Amino acid sequence: MRRGSFEHDDLIFSFLDGGGDGKPLLALHGHWMGASDFEDLAADLAPAWRVVALDQRGFGESDHTDRHALPAYISDAVALLDHLGIIDPVPVIGHSFGGIVAYHMAAQHPERVECMVIEDIGVEIADDSAPFVAPWAGIYRRREELEAKLGPRLAPYLQRSIERRPEGWQLNFDPDEFLRSEQATNGDHWGVWLASECPALVVGGRASRVCNAEHLKAMADRRKDTMLVMLDAGHSVHVDARKDFGVLCQQFLERGA
Fold this sequence. Notes:
Layout: E1 2-8, E2 11-17, E3 23-28, H1 39-45, E4 49-54, H2 70-83, E5 90-95, H3 97-108, E6 113-119, E7 124-125, H4 130-133, H5 143-150, E8 162-165, E9 168-171, H6 175-185, E10 187-188, H7 190-193, E11 200-205, H8 213-222, E12 226-231, H9 237-240, H10 242-256
Parallel strand pairs: 3-4, 3-5, 5-6, 6-11, 11-12
Antiparallel strand pairs: 1-2, 2-4, 7-10, 8-9
């Protein structure tokens, strides 16, 4: 994937573009992660699909800001499509935080979203990660020190979010800024979830600590043209069950293409 950038809302945004002649597909990452989290999926879906992945505001290589709100996230995603001249509706894959943005985008801009894959996120969000995320802030002399702070369960998933600076190692997102983003996405989103009509695939991880199958099943049961598939994975289904997730997405996308 090749990296590009664009300016929107007085911020510089970074994104990755798989390129090629495939049909465009927008990918939106979860909290703590970035566009690079979808590089493997882009490879698995090519050449039929051209995956375009956004570093959402405050994450990856995009600018940091104190302006965090769902309308802003949706505007950022639409601005990326506009920047690339992608006018026709596209499939949107959203993991966790990105999934919330995806289903809000489908409700507010149905003309831009052809279908959506919602990966391991519900519609009743009441997260508070401050107790364990706040201590991640700072710069560490050695990469291993930061990985130890993240802990053995989470460090493997955040490898692409660790960066080297002249003064040491740190995360490419600010934990305090993430907590503002988390608060911005908390709430009851049932009304928004049910407001869109495009086909949807909800994918959950059986070992996820974020979602439970009962809630995801209710999302699929209550919304038209929506199906649920549970895979043997944790919260990052596309990482833990890469092959199965890729095949599942390919089948769903071919159905709607």
